[in-house]
Specification:
Elements (H helix, E strand, L loop, with lengths): L2 E6 L7 H14 L3 E5 L2 H6 L3 E4 L26 H13 L4 E6 L1 H12 L4 E5 L15 H22 L2 E6 L6 H10 L3 E3 L7 H13 L5 E6 L5 H12 L3 E5 L11 H19 L5 E6 L2 E6 H5 L8 H9 L2
Parallel strand pairs: 1-2, 1-4, 4-5, 5-10, 6-8, 6-9, 7-8
Antiparallel strand pairs: 2-3, 10-11
Helix pairs in contact: 1-9, 5-6, 6-11
Bound molecules: 6-O-phosphono-beta-D-fructofuranose.
The site of 6-O-phosphono-beta-D-fructofuranose has 11 residues, from loops.
Length: 319
């Protein structure tokens, strides 16, 4: 292997730049040429590929978003589109690719690998929903952002004796809401991994009031219900003012925290090592603090992310 490419795909996540920097710098230090692919798989298909030197990744370790840009490009599912993408890589003499993104991006990397083009996946998403790793890049930074938002909501909810519903990203994974609930001391958690009964929630809110709680913060994962309609139902059932806040894309932005920078640097460098060893169709993770790599097909099909029941129970215990 003499030339490698790097791209970011899907939803951006804080720490992606630190990972790009690590791939570029580790690659250069091994004597490789490194190319940036701009605009994810969409950019790859359109041949938006440029060589990267060490100064192209100066002053980016601290920056949110992705300097390479990202895109959602469902058309990449089509084999003819991927074939074109491989031709574009070959035009530059690129032998292998590092893909930083979530499960959709891993799917693209798996398909390219199956077509004979070596790829390594790095988990970059705030959702923490990728198997084979305890943490995805961006999760810890987004968690800090959500906890900061919950702290602020607590101030205003307490002042007005209100119930506050906060909708948190994560797609179909409750990790961000769950961890934020524990760290933010929210009263109630609603996550996709646990069955939810609204009448039970109302009863818990009453119990909280009986305990003398001035506010009630309900953390809920997105896509589960319409939180504004839920706020109206809770308000009419409890007689207490209830407001819903959808945190939205604020959760995706901002400077990566130290944790995400360190893990991104480790994972990016490790991806280059794996490519130099001739590995393909692997995805990198951190488990029990150690760098690991798994078969990307297994990661997408048979492997499952364990739900942190311990954190869920803890949050209820401390309510
Ligand atoms: O996967 C990251 C994520 O932010 C999810 O939490 C969310 O459901 C989705 O992306 C939003 O996607 P988009 O930025 O395309 O609206």
């Amino acid at each position: 292997i003499k030339k490698i490419g790097v791209l970011t795909s899907g939803g951006d996540a804080p720490g992606m730049n630190a990972a790009i920097r690590a791939v570029v710098r580790a690659g250069l230090s091994e004597g490789l040429e490194v190319f940036g692919i701009y605009g994810g798989y969409y950019g790859l298909y359109h041949g938006n590929i440029k060589p990267m030197g060490r100064h192209d990744v100066s002053d980016v370790i601290n920056r949110g978003g992705t300097i390479l840009g990202s895109a959602r490009f469902p058309e990449f599912k089509e084999e003819s589109i991927r074939q074109e993408a491989i031709e574009n890589l070959k035009k530059h003499g690129i032998d292998a690719l590092v893909v930083i993104g979530g499960d959709g991006s891993y799917m693209g990397a798996m398909k390219l690998s199956e077509m004979g083009f070596p790829c390594i996946g790095l988990p970059g998403t705030i959702d923490n929903d990728i198997s084979g790793t305890d943490y995805t890049l961006g999760f810890m930074t987004a968690l800090d952002t959500v906890v900061d938002a919950i702290d602020r909501l607590r101030d205003t909810s307490s002042s007005h004796n209100r119930i506050s519903i906060v909708e948190i990203m994560g797609r179909h994974c409750g990790d961000l809401a769950l961890w934020a609930s524990v760290a933010g001391g929210s009263e109630y958690i609603i996550v996709p991994e646990v069955d939810f009964d609204e009448s039970e929630l109302l009863k818990q809110i009453e119990d909280g009031e009986a305990k003398g709680k001035k506010h009630a913060i309900i953390a809920i994962t997105e896509l589960m219900t319409d939180v504004n309609a839920m706020a109206k139902r809770i308000e009419s059932a409890t007689g207490r003012e209830t407001r819903a806040t959808i945190l939205g894309h604020i959760q995706r932005g901002g400077a990566p925290n130290a944790w995400d920078r360190v893990q991104a640097s480790r994972m990016g460098s490790f991806a280059v090592e794996l490519l130099l060893k001739g590995e393909s169709a692997r995805c990198v993770g951190i488990q029990k603090g150690q760098l690991v790599h798994h078969n990307i097909i297994e990661c997408l099909t048979t492997m499952r992310r364990p739900f942190r029941q311990d954190l869920y129970d803890l949050s209820n215990r401390l309510f």
